[in-house]
Amino acid sequence: MIKLDNIHKRFGDSEVLKGINLEIKQGEIIVIIGSSGTGKSTLLRTVNFLERADKGVISIDDVSVDSEKHTEAEVLALRRKTGFVFQNYALFAHMTARQNIAEGLITVRGWKKSHALQRAQQILDDIGLSDKGDSYPASLSGGQQQRVGIGRAMALQPELLLFDEPTSALDPEWVGEVLSLMKDLATKHQTMLVVTHEMQFAREVADRVIFMAEGHIVEQGSPQDIFGNPQDPRLKKFLRQVGAD
C-alpha cells in the first residue's frame, strides 16, 4: 500500500500542491491527467523526495517519511522502494545502455559489477534492445533511450514505478514503442503512477484516472467514469481541449 497524506508544496509565493491525499493499492495503475502547471509532475517528484514537500507524510509499505522531519536514512529507504522514469531520459552519456541499467544495482543494491551487468543484459532482452547493450545514449533513438530509462527503473524491482510524462520528449514515431513497453509492465501488475498527456493510454491501461487542477485532485475514477461521464466543469473543459471527450 502506498499513501500520500496531506501533501503541500510551495515555490515562492505559488502554492503548487494544496493538501493532496492519495492511496494506491499494490498492482494498481494510476494515471494523472490535467493541464500544464497544475502540480502533476511536482506531486510525482515529492513521492521519492526529488522535491521535498513542505508538509505531509509519504508511506510505501513499512516506510513512512514525514516531509517536515525526517532523516537521510528514511529518505533513502523510501527511494529504494521506487523507480523514476524521467521525461528527458536522464541517462548517463558516458555509459553504455547496459552500464546505465546496471548502475543502480551496483550503487543502490550493492551488487557485484559482473552480476549487475548480467542482469542488465537480461533486461535489455526483455525490452527488445538485446543488441544495444554496448551502445551509448547518443547513438540510440529517443524511443530506445526511454526504454533504457524504463529498464533502469525496472532493474531495482521497485514497489512503485513513477513515470513523469515519459513520451513528451519523443518524436511521434517513437511514442508507440514506449507506451507498448509500459502496457507490458501493466500486464505484470507493476504498481505505477503515471503523469501523461496520452489520453488513449489512460483509457486502455489505467485502473484509475486522476484529474488535477489548481493544486488539487479534483476528480478521480475509472477511465470509463472520467472519460465517459465527467462531473467537474474543469475536467469537461480539459477533455474538450485535448479532444478526449
Write a structural description.
With 245 residues, the chain is α/β, with parallel strands linked by helices. It is built from nine helices and ten strands. The protein has helices at residues 40-47, 72-79, 97-107, 113-126, 142-155, 172-187, 199-205, 223-228, 233-241; strands spanning 2-11, 14-24, 29-33, 55-60, 63-66, 82-85, 160-164, 192-195, 208-213, 216-221. The strands form two sheets. Strands 6-7-8-3-9-10 form a six-stranded mixed sheet, sandwiched between helices. A four-stranded antiparallel sheet has the order 2-1-4-5, covered by helices on one side. A hairpin with a 2-residue loop joins β9 and β10. The mean pLDDT is 94.
What's the rounded overall pLDDT mean? 94
Q: Radius of gyration over alpha carbons? A: 18 Å
Amount of helix = 25-40%
H/E order of the elements?
EEEHEEHEHHHEHEHEEHH
User: Class by helix and strand content?
Assistant: alpha/beta
Largest sheet: 6 strands, mixed
Count of individual beta strands: 10
CA(first)-CA(last) distance: 32 Å
General shape: globular
Q: What is the count of DSSP helices, taking H or I runs of 4+ residues?
A: 9
The stretches of 5 or more residues where confidence is low (pLDDT under 50) are none
Order the strands across the largest sheet as they lie in space: 6-7-8-3-9-10
Strand content: 15-25%
